[in-house]
Amino acid sequence: MPGPFTVATPEALNSAISLAVAFGLGTVIGAERQYRQRTAGLRTAVLVSVGASAFVDLGMRLTGSEGAVRTVAYVISGIGFLGAGVIMKEGMNVRGLNTAATLWCSAAVGAFAGADLPLEACFVAVAVLAGNTLLRPLVNLINRIPIDESATEATYEVQVTTEAETAGPARDLLVERLEAASYPVSGVEVEERGDEVVEVVATLTATAVDSKELDAVVAELAAQPGIRHATWSVQTGD
Prior knowledge:
Blueprint: H1 9-35, H2 42-84, E1 88-90, E2 93-95, H3 97-114, H4 118-133, H5 136-144, E3 154-163, H6 167-180, E4 185-192, E5 197-204, H7 211-222, E6 227-236
Antiparallel strand pairs: 1-2, 3-5, 3-6, 4-5
Helix pairs in contact: 1-2, 1-3, 1-4, 2-3, 3-4, 6-7
């Protein structure tokens, strides 16, 4: 008579294979992250892959393919919370996006393994490794290319510093000079910089400008009576 701890050998063996595949592929993905000293390294990638595989395998064992599909949906959404934990914002820079995406892909590898698709799991793992390694030289090459401001979508702002009582005329003058230079303004804000000093900031509609033209506009504004200082800045998009 079977004991209380007797398991169905074929199903248990199938689960063991799925977990082994998830563990092995998660190790390969995590090793690359660990080598580069990322926030989420070897153990995290392995645990994500094995966990996804275990949950998907459990769903299949309990209710078949329908249960696996529901489980995969929860894995996809749930791994997002874990990925958010490795994303850090430092000033205008955001770090950890690639590591979070790698964890998400590790879950996909585990889900394939848990769904008894080990070959497909290998394909995804190879694609992840290729993205994190083979594309690195291309990324470095692109980053070394000088930015062409005329081809870069960005947010341009022109700021003038003036006294509080002359903020209105300074605002009108700022908009007038920019529109005369064919740079329409999408919005203007007045920000206090002290008891008697304010900064009028105009955001341009254009996402690409000629820096020499803006320099000329700023120089003209700075020479106007009542304007203490004039400058412009640019912020590139994500």
